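Translate sequence into structure tokens.
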Amino acid sequence: MLKIKRIYDHEQDYQSYRILVDRMWPRGISKANAKLNDWTKEIAPSVELRKWFAHDPEKFADFQIEYQKELDLNPYTKQFIATVKKQLTQGNVTLLYGAKDTKHNQAVVLKHYLEQKLGEAN
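Result follows.
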């Protein structure tokens, strides 16, 4: 199962393959406590797109479109999809993010994007 989870939440699935999908390391979280399997900051939205969006829910629809365009053009996306697909054969994969808004963030968009791409592969 592909899941998303805020890295600051107390309840975490440490049995899952854990990937941080933020470009910047989350404040106040030590690398030891994060217990990550991977930090794929290259898959995060560009600095320009992130700053423009600024977690404004009114911009989320446009953010989704622009971030998906970035993912389509990103040279790391194909490898990232392959990694997620491989890890899903072995268990759950959790995309971790730091944003306070649990409904309007890049992990929500990325999860939907991955589900589409993985569905196309089957």
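Note: Helices lie at 31-34, 47-53, 60-73, 77-88, 106-121.
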